[in-house]
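Q: Secreted protein, please. Structure only.
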Amino acid sequence: MNRTALQGSARVRLALGAALVSSVLCAPVCAAPSAAAAPANASEVTAASSVARTGAERSCPVVYFDLGETLVHTAEDGSTGYQPGAASYLRALRERHIRVGLITNVPSSWGTTDAARAARLKKEVDGTWQGPAPFAWKDFGDRILTPRTEAERKPAPALWQRAKAGAGHCRVVYQAETAEEVTVASSLGFVPYQVGRPHRPAFLPVGLVELLGRRSG
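A: Structure for Secreted protein:
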């Protein structure tokens, strides 16, 4: 490939990156199905270029998810399984060594610690699981955050605040199916992405997660 073609390819990637940045930043604002995504402008292109130039910085994004109807779907018969595309998306994050976590509501009575409540959550999900592969619990490690009291249940800010504190200087992303949750997450410093929206990727593209992660959160 000659230099002109390489330069043209780079410009295309930059333009696509800027458009995706615009889509992410629009997520909590454009929750209504009729809202149109804002087009990329010069400032967004400059911002995307700035992100690309920070490749020497430590890349350490942490991607948090809601669980139900974001990564996992519950069918009418009560069985559970992956949402379309969720298994392959988690695998792509794993292959790029991007850490993931869960911020999910469960009864606070399920345990006195996050670990105890997470163990009960795994038992509940695995007990109704159907599909060729089990849910990838090991990807999440100890980053499964659940309410310690009923007052901490989302959309209260407590779980997001705990996730952000645990991420240190790393940028944090939050993906969920509800506009209310991504709006709250955005207000607390997360990069928000509402999944399940028509005419856009099912999940925040992994390449953009990497770019965002190269800037400290």
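A: Brief note, in case it's useful. The chain has one domain: 59-213.
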